[in-house]
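Per-record layout

source: Elaeis guineensis var. tenera
name: methylmalonate-semialdehyde dehydrogenase (CoA acylating)
length: 519
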Amino acid sequence: PAAAFAIHRLSTSAAASPSHGTLPSRLRNLIGGEFLESQSEASIDVLNPATQEVVSRVPLTTNEEFKAAVNAAKSAFPKWRNAPVTARQRIMLKLQELIRRDMDKLAVNITTEQGKTLKDAQGDVFRGLEVVEHACGMATLQMGEFVSNVSTGIDTYSIREPLGVCAGICPFNFPAMIPLWMFPLAVTCGNTFILKPSEKDPGAAMMLAELALEAGLPDGVLNIVHGTNDVVNNICDDEDIKAISFVGSNTAGMHIYSRAAAKGKRVQSNMGAKNHAIIMPDASVDAALDALVAAGFGAAGQRCMALSTAVFVGGSKPWEDELIKRAQALKVNAGIEPGTDLGPVISRQAKDRICRLIQSGIESGARVLLDGRDIVVPGYVDGNFVGPTILADVTSHMECYKEEIFGPVLLLMQAESLQEAIHIVNSNKYGNGASVFTTSGVSARKFQNDIEAGQVGINVPIPVPLPFFSFTGSKASFAGDLNFYGKAGVQFYTQIKTVTQQWKDSPSQGVSLAMPTSQ
Ligand code: NAD
């Protein structure tokens, strides 16, 4: 019965609380299909950012446990790579059904550990679910190419083969979507996988792993290890790991990119951002304002595609009153409460950092239109809340502009022309996303051509492509050359092999030592 199963599943990935019942449960590693308690003495507390309650504890996986996970993945690989692609797809078909079944449970876990609203948490799961749906078509995605008669009686064809053991290292801000960007495509290509969830909110990844096992993923195909820098460095250094998918900050991403590349691994590294919107004077007013408020403050600004900077061509003054009004109307509360628009930020340190960057903006001459630093949320006085904040007259040299704030802070800048606005955006080191709001096709087309960002929105505030395209951040927002999901994602998780075959019944032409050429 479903209830008995739910209890069983709860007890697999988290060790039971000790008999005195005071300590929250400690998560387990997943090694070779078994949820195993870590021998490590050290743990990190997972805190509910709205209350500071300890939700669970994450062990720092030991070196031996890490190696056991890699060995499990390595041993599972030969059989799994030879499983029919249709069998691998069917597990994804089942997984997408199970994720839908448990959508609400996953969302509650995300809201509890990460802080975002329940509706936004469902979006987090849903955007990952779409990658699982995409993986269900792997037979087509992984198809090779064939050219008949490249020379007389000779054909050439290419095959996309899995790499072996791959690994994924996740950030805190999308606890379900980002693990789902990684392991479903990797394993459906025939790889085995080591996942390292964010130590700040690993619960959703654990639930997804349980669902993957329930869907029929064989033991050892997906493994989970926990921790921070040490386990990440182990992943970078391990000779048996062939590829690493990383999403997170530039500091960690560039470290992982160079350390793993030095060991000959391929790495795709999605990193930080500063996403701009250019607002033309002819933009549709209500649509542009709604988009700025939603994309600036949604998820408390903790999205790598959040619109954190608005460049107003012709100046921001005519827009400011309405913008303030809409931002003030947003309800800041715990994500679990009905009607909440934005929840807390992930940690006390994150809040302190956001407040420090707001202060530095003010000290360097920005005009405060709305200040959310002192917000107190009744019933959640310990929560890491920052209310919507708007700074105007921001310039490119300010620290609040140069740094990714990753909080509910919208910066307003000005430009005299579209050309100047594009120049501002292109001078920024990041290149994740950029949008333009305009009713002019001419302006939109110029923007699309001239803007140096990997994901472009035209009257669309958060232009994150669906999985049949790829997530194409660029400049300092990405390192590597094969992006996440879509065609590039499949290329990332496969090695191309090109076969040339000759079957002809004509007699031998004799020995020739010259380089073969097509005839
Ligand atoms: P983070 O870099 O602090 O952590 C990400 C992962 O790296 C975690 O698993 C963490 O344990 C590990 N890590 C952190 N520091 C490390 C170090 N010095 N050495 C080795 N491993 C380390 O990132 P975060 O705070 O969890 O996530 C927020 C960041 O992620 C933001 O910069 C955001 O823009 C970025 N992000 C980017 C995308 C994208 O697709 N471009 C998507 C989501 C988040």
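summary: Residues 169-174, 196, 198-199, 228-229, 232, 247-249, 251-252, 255, 270-273, 304, 404, 406, 432, 471, 473, 477 surround nicotinamide-adenine-dinucleotide (CB under 6 Å). Residues 92 and 253 are 29 Å apart (CA to CA).
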